[in-house]
């Protein structure tokens, strides 16, 4: 999810498309939250680890 966010940020920056840039930021934030929650041992979506 974090990698997808970075890819969207780069594409949005190069193509000057604001909505892609915004989606990239959202994807990075969601990916970071899920990674942090998964690393603390919380089950996410029925899985013990998120990846």
Structure explained in plain terms:
There is one protein chain. 71% of the residues lie in helices and 0% in strands. It is an all-alpha fold. The relative contact order is 0.19.
Tally of individual domains: 1
| Main sheet specs | none
Instruction: Give the termini separation.
Output: 9 Å
Q: How helical, in percent, are the residues?
A: over 70%
Percent strand? under 5%
Structural class: mainly alpha
Rg, please? 13 Å
Please tag this protein with its features.
single chain, 51 residues, mainly alpha, 2 helices, rod-shaped
Write the layout of secondary structure elements.
Blueprint: H1 2-15, H2 18-39
Summarize the entry for a quick read.
By secondary structure, this protein is mainly alpha-helical. It has helices at 2-15, 18-39.
């Amino acid at each position: 999810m974090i990698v997808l966010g970075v890819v969207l940020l780069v594409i949005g920056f190069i193509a000057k498309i604001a909505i892609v840039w915004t989606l990239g930021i959202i994807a990075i934030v969601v990916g970071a939250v899920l990674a942090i929650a998964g690393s603390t041992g919380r089950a996410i979506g029925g899985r013990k680890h998120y990846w």
